[in-house]
Amino acid sequence: MNKTHRLCLVLGDQLSFDLASLAGLDREQDRVLLVEVMEEASHVAHHPQKIALIFSAMRHFAQALKDQGFRVHYVTLDDPHNSGSVPGELKRWQALLQAKEVHLTECGDWRLEQSLKDCGLPIHWHADNRFLCSRDEFRAWAAGKKQLRMEFFYREMRRKSRLLLNGDGTPVGGAWNFDADNRKALPKTVKAPYPAGFTNDAITLEVLALVKERFASHYGSLDDFNYPVTHADAQALWAYFLDYGLAGFGDYQDAMASNEPFLFHARISAALNIGLLDLRQLCSDVESAYWSGSIALNAAEGFIRQLIGWREYVRGVYWLHMPEYAEGNAFGNTRRLPEFYWTGDTQMKCMRQAIGQSLKHAYAHHIQRLMVTGNFALLAGISPSQICEWYLAIYMDAFDWVELPNTLGMVMHADGGYLGSKPYCASGQYINRMSDYCRDCAYSVRETTADNACPFNALYWHFLMRHGDLLRGNQRMGMMYKNLDRMPLEKQQALWQRGQSLLDRLDRGESL
Ligand code: SF4
């Protein structure tokens, strides 16, 4: 075999034609390597649909690169020579091809990047320029700050990208953030668009069969696989959202409704996170939709903020503070994750809906993740590492750089408030306001201490009581503690007892 000059390893979440490490490859002398490995598919029990998405998208991407003239080597999971790990395959192929140089774009997972750095090969690392803010740029912005705030970072990114800015650098509409307009519940008369569908081609069908056979023990169904696996299909999903979803996304992005898993959400996060869509193009399309008058400013700004604000911000935090960030446990939580997170077997309608659709579609939208499953984990004092593993495993779009800060920092406040200024804790009243779940729940959202009282209610007060030492000094928690302090002592005691009995039931392995 002729000697190869450059060997470029492309990971399963790096399926972008303009990936930095692909630029400058000589299509004659250089090689591209893609590998399906058991270690990445099973270091947590990833949802089978997520494994299928990544493998199928990788196979389609490899074919597209070949069609463009690249010399590509592809290792399937069932290849008898497959060593099972990314570093193992990289070493094997470097030796086989006698490659002089190995090139790689920064990973999305600290664990994997570290294992590659430790594998004994000198690697030429390329910054991942698919993001707006580089790791170094974020580090410089965060330097000297005790606490970070997304809002200030987001303004920097607006200035940098010049999205939704007036000529003088001020924000369009006179404010940077229109989040207050994005919190409407869904009226009965408003119908969400039926989501776009995709047909599985021969490559995807082959992958689905492989995943079904090899990952039968992982939680989640393969039956409803309906995700784009090529750049063209991802564009089609995006175009569908621009036409049918975006206008309603602003108003109803926090709303939840029974048996409506997607509402006005784009469902593009998985495609974006594996490289099938381009961040800058998405933002530019949304801005154009605003200037063309087809969507309101709160919809455009809210969407752009998710992408260049929150998404870039959590990535920055991740790379700034790994690996110690993963150890955060400010409340000292140790409770085991209840079994019903893996089955949906609970009487709580909101949890059953959020978990059920997560098992069925590997998807739940951000408020279901933050204010239902996340809120419950926070109030119930679940071990941060266990709930982080659940989110990483169950969601199609969950990669460590985005999942860990979102779950450990935002959901669990386990970083002590570094990433978010207060815990997102709420009683059942919030869920009742933003959804129709409570109408036919086995529990009553109006009750607080009765046997049929909504578990979120007593757990909310129990959470505030047991963490008063850490949270009473937080100005943003002032109103909550004022409400607690105004309650008669007997009421506080009854709430504590009800909350404790619910926690005891969880400790006995019972469902709620
Ligand atoms: Fe969820 Fe409580 Fe409402 Fe039931 S009553 S759906 S448990 S918030």
UniProtKB/TrEMBL annotation:
Domain of life: Bacteria
Coiled coil: none
InterPro entries with a match to the protein in the record: Crypto/Photolyase_FAD-like_sf, PhrB-like, Rossmann-like_a/b/a_fold, UV-DNA_repair_photolyase
Record's protein name: Cryptochrome/photolyase family protein
